[in-house]
Amino acid sequence: xxxxxxxxxxxxxxxxxxxxxxxxxxxxxxxxxxxxxxxxxxxxxxxxxxxxxxxxxxxxxxxxxxxxxxxxxxxxxxxxxxxxxxxxxxxxxxxxxxxxxxxxxxxxxxxxxxxxxxxxxxxxxxxxxxxxxxxxxxxxxxxxxxxxxxxxxxxxxxxxxxxxxxxxxxxxxxxxxxxxxxxxxxxxxxxxxxxxxxxxxxxxxxxxxxxxxxxxxxxxxxxxxxxxxxxxxxxxxxxxxxxxxxxxxxxxxxxxxxxxxxxxxxxxxxxxxxxxxxxxxxxxxxxxxxxxxxxxxxxxxxxxxxxxxxxxxxxxxxxxxxxxxxxxxxxxxxxxxxxxxxxxxxxxxxxxxxxxxxxxxxxxxxxxxxxxxxxxxxxxxxxxxx
Length: 386
Fold this sequence. Notes:
Layout: H1 2-13, E1 23-25, H2 28-38, E2 41-47, H3 52-60, H4 65-74, E3 75-81, H5 86-94, E4 101-105, E5 111-116, H6 121-132, H7 138-144, H8 152-165, H9 170-179, H10 187-196, H11 204-211, H12 213-219, H13 222-235, H14 243-253, H15 258-273, H16 279-293, H17 298-311, H18 315-331, H19 335-347, H20 351-367, H21 373-383
Parallel strand pairs: 1-3, 2-3
Antiparallel strand pairs: 2-4, 4-5
Helix pairs in contact: 8-9, 10-12, 12-13, 14-15, 15-16, 16-17, 16-18, 17-18, 17-19, 18-19, 19-20, 19-21, 20-21
């Protein structure tokens, strides 16, 4: 906790004038000399010119003022094109498995920490903090691994770190942790297994989740577990998979849950592929799913209602959409679903109800510093109702 408080204080008390990370370009030797002199780690952004996630990091993360200030204060920062000039030799030595790869090197060039792929600002800050602290970086866990093969807490933390950093050997540590557990039930193991279930439906973790669904529903939440199940089943097939294949596998593996999962699959596909040709069928399906299966995910329920608002053409559509949106409010009363209720009341020409929920949405947005401009536009439209 003290470490987190220190970081937060630094970010708010320190200067916020730096607008981007100050990178040395393609010169690791210069960075190593500077790191030795300043007693700092070297942060390396290993990129390529064609890499989309690399460009996204430049546009959305490395220009963040707070992150820039922290990185410029804490590291010697280097940006290396891994396919040109000195970057080719760097890539041969450090073997980046993906682009971008981020390295935190000692002044002698040894890897202390690394991560793969694009991260948002808060995630990269967390990675950087982990690199600096003596018992949270990758090198610490690698060095102490062999002495802790029966240490469940060490292996749990190590496996979770590797997954967060997206490093390939996380599966081996997962197996080592599970070998220390005589009982896989309970919240900690449910969350650990859920986080590590992939798309191999024959894998021990997936089979365990299927065999112990109620434990996972209790500790993770039914909607999240259902989504994980559907993703795994769908992903277990090849690119030529059909809906019939997936449904048959759902019925085989999860006969008691098959109707609910099939309904969720149907709605997911309609929303993901923008294939809603008959809004009446969609509205009735969304209404049935909401009140028959009682989903716990307010955002999913709100999305159903919002689609009805956008595509609906009849009073019955909007009445059912409003009922769905109110279920989302009951799950988690927030700006987004109150705005949806207001919009559906507007479509029903319910001026009083529309105003009530619109003003409530604006109040909620203001409380958290959110943007309620679209709701203000809706209020102007509501005011024009007879």
